[in-house]
Each structure stands twice: as structure tokens, then as C-alpha cells.
């Protein structure tokens, strides 16, 4: 074991460096890279703030609050990633902050689709006589045999609760993780069965899947109605933020823990993987911020009111067709 340790650069086994140590060891390329990424994160935040002012003035309540929450996902992640880029010791906290904010966005996006339909009452009036297909991802996309459920207040409450639980429990588990970390009981690199991270993180993953399911159910059943509100590209951006901030980061962290990412003193393999993840997220969230600005910064026209006599018209059409078929047979 001693011989093995002698082949590893001691710098690769050190704790994350301080911000001042990073600044001192930056070369010309590093200075340019850090400057450009910091500028991107700052621009993301400025674009978001300008958009918030526009939405606050032009969009009626309560939709404007929901839109501001949903739009803040990419800028918030970019800002936290920039802080983690300059202060590697804080990466765990910046990642947890980003994940907690996105947990709230999952619930807010569900509310956004309801408000785009005109609110709960208008939604029930439009879809009250329909049945929702629930065989969709990420839970039951392979279960087409699941029955379609009627659209009622109870169904709507369950869908909201399914997403709201993630926003609440994710915040609670983040606080618990920070408290355990201060006591030396929480370490993301500790994959032993006795570690707390190996129990908390999979449980949070299950909560995430449960929360994403109601949003997917709602989108699959209202996407045609809300096509004029550009709900499909909005949902695509929401899914892209999810994949990049959660799945991409998890893959890079797993590779770093396995030692597949080379150590580069003063950064260990794990810290270097974290920094690579922060750099990618800043660039990706900057682009997503610009795209979401095009989608959300616009005038919002109300949907055409649901035709209360639409069902009667359908029934009358069926009766006329049946009568014509009867005359033809006669």
C-alpha cells in the first residue's frame, strides 16, 4: 500500500484548493477561460433580471410569478456554477442550492401549464369530461395497459401534490445533508453502506422521478391545447435543464469517483470532475437562458374560451348521422 501511495502525486489527495490558490496558478488560457465563463454567468443573470422586469409589467398575476420562477432555473444554476468554479470548497453547497431551486421549478412548471389553461377552474371546465393518459415517463412509459383517469379536482390535487412533495422534501434533505456534513457524517465520495450519502441520494432520486411524472402527465394531455402558447419548446427547455443539471452532473461525478478523470494538481480527480461540470453548466445554461428569453418574453394572449355547447354539438352531429344512415337503409 505504501508503494502504491508513493506513485500518486500528493497534490491529488489534497482537499479542494482555496480561491486565491486557483487565481495564483492560472495561466493565460485559464485566465481567459475563467473570465469568459464568469462573463457568461453574469450575462445570464442580467438577461434574467431584465426579463423579470418585463414580465412583472406586462403579465398579469398570478402567472407572472410562476413564469419568473420557471425562467430562473438556468440563470440560478449558471450563477451557482460560477461560484463553485471560483470556490471549489463550496461546490457541494452550490450544487445543492441549484438542485433545490430546480425542485421548486418542477412544481412551478406544473402550475404554469394550469395557468396557461386559465387556472384550475378553467382547466376543469375544459378537460372535466376527458380522461388523462397516465402511461407516460419517467415512471410508466412502458405500461400502456394503465387505465385513463377522469379529470376531477381530486386528480388535479394529486398531480399537484406529487410535484409539491419534491420541492418540500428536497429542501428538507438539503438542510439535513448540510447539518450532517458539518458533523462529518455526510460525504458524497463515501459509497460505503454505513455512509449517509448512499442512503439520502437514492431516496432523493426516487422523489425526483415521482415529481416528474405528474408534470409529464399534464404535458401529454394539454400540449395540443397549449400549442399556441409554445408549451412544447418550453417543456423541451425544462427537460434540457433537468438532463444537464442532474444527469450530466451525476455522470461526470461518477467518472471522477472511479478515477476515469485524470488528476491535475492542485485538483484531485473528483475536484477536477466537479470543475469540468461547472464549466459545462455555465456555457449550457447561458445558451438556455437566451432561448427561454425568446419563449417567455412576449405578450400573453388568453386562450379562446372553452365552448360550453361543444359536447351538445357533437351529440347533435351523431344524431343527424344516425338518422341519415337510417334513411339510407330504408
TrEMBL record:
<feature type="transmembrane region" description="Helical">
    <location>
        <begin position="276"/>
        <end position="296"/>
    </location>
</feature>
<keyword id="KW-1133">Transmembrane helix</keyword>
<dbReference type="GO" id="GO:0016020">
    <property type="term" value="C:membrane"/>
</dbReference>
<keyword id="KW-0472">Membrane</keyword>
<keyword id="KW-0812">Transmembrane</keyword>
<feature type="transmembrane region" description="Helical">
    <location>
        <begin position="202"/>
        <end position="224"/>
    </location>
</feature>
<protein>
    <recommendedName>
        <fullName>Organic solute transporter subunit alpha</fullName>
    </recommendedName>
</protein>
<dbReference type="InterPro" id="IPR005178">
    <property type="entry name" value="Ostalpha/TMEM184C"/>
</dbReference>
<feature type="transmembrane region" description="Helical">
    <location>
        <begin position="163"/>
        <end position="182"/>
    </location>
</feature>
<feature type="transmembrane region" description="Helical">
    <location>
        <begin position="236"/>
        <end position="256"/>
    </location>
</feature>
<feature type="transmembrane region" description="Helical">
    <location>
        <begin position="31"/>
        <end position="56"/>
    </location>
</feature>
<feature type="transmembrane region" description="Helical">
    <location>
        <begin position="68"/>
        <end position="87"/>
    </location>
</feature>
<dbReference type="Pfam" id="PF03619">
    <property type="entry name" value="Solute_trans_a"/>
</dbReference>
Amino acid at each position: 500500500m505504501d508503494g502504491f501511495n508513493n506513485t500518486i502525486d500528493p497534490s491529488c489527495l489534497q482537499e479542494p484548493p482555496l480561491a486565491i490558490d486557483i487565481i495564483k496558478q492560472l495561466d493565460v488560457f485559464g485566465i481567459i477561460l475563467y473570465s469568459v465563463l464568469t462573463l457568461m454567468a453574469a450575462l445570464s443573470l442580467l438577461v434574467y433580471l431584465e426579463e423579470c422586469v418585463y414580465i412583472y409589467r406586462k403579465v398579469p398575476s398570478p402567472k407572472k410569478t410562476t413564469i419568473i420562477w420557471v425562467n430562473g432555473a438556468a440563470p440560478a444554476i449558471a450563477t451557482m456554477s460560477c461560484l463553485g468554479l471560483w470556490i471549489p470548497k463550496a461546490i457541494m453547497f452550490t450544487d445543492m442550492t441549484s438542485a433545490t431551486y430546480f425542485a421548486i421549478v418542477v412544481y412551478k412548471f406544473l402550475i404554469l401549464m394550469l395557468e396557461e389553461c386559465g387556472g384550475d377552474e378553467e382547466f376543469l371546465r375544459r378537460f372535466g369530461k376527458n380522461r388523462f393518459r397516465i402511461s407516460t415517463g419517467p415512471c410508466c412509459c412502458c405500461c400502456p395497459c394503465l387505465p385513463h383517469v377522469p379529470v376531477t379536482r381530486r386528480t388535479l390535487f394529486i398531480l399537484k401534490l406529487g410535484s409539491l412533495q419534491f420541492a418540500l422534501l428536497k429542501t428538507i434533505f438539503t438542510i439535513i445533508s448540510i447539518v450532517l456534513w458539518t458533523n462529518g457524517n455526510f460525504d458524497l465520495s463515501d459509497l460505503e453502506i454505513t455512509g449517509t450519502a448512499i442512503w439520502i441520494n437514492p431516496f432523493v432520486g426516487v422523489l425526483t422521478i415521482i415529481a416528474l411524472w405528474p408534470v409529464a402527465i399534464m404535458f401529454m394531455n394539454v400540449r395540443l391545447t397549449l400549442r399556441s402558447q409554445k408549451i412544447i419548446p418550453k417543456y423541451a427547455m425544462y427537460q434540457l435543464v433537468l438532463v444537464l443539471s442532474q444527469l450530466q452532473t451525476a455522470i461526470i461525478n461518477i467518472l471522477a469517483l472511479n478515477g476515469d478523470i485524470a488528476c491535475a494538481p492542485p485538483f484531485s480527480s473528483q475536484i477536477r470532475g466537479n470543475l469540468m461540470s461547472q464549466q459545462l453548466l455555465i456555457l449550457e445554461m447561458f445558451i438556455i437562458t437566451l432561448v427561454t428569453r425568446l419563449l417567455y418574453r412576449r405578450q400573453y394572449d388568453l386562450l379562446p374560451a372553452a365552448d360550453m355547447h361543444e359536447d351538445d354539438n357533437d351529440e347533435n352531429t351523431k344524431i343527424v348521422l344516425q338518422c341519415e344512415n337510417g334513411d339510407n337503409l330504408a
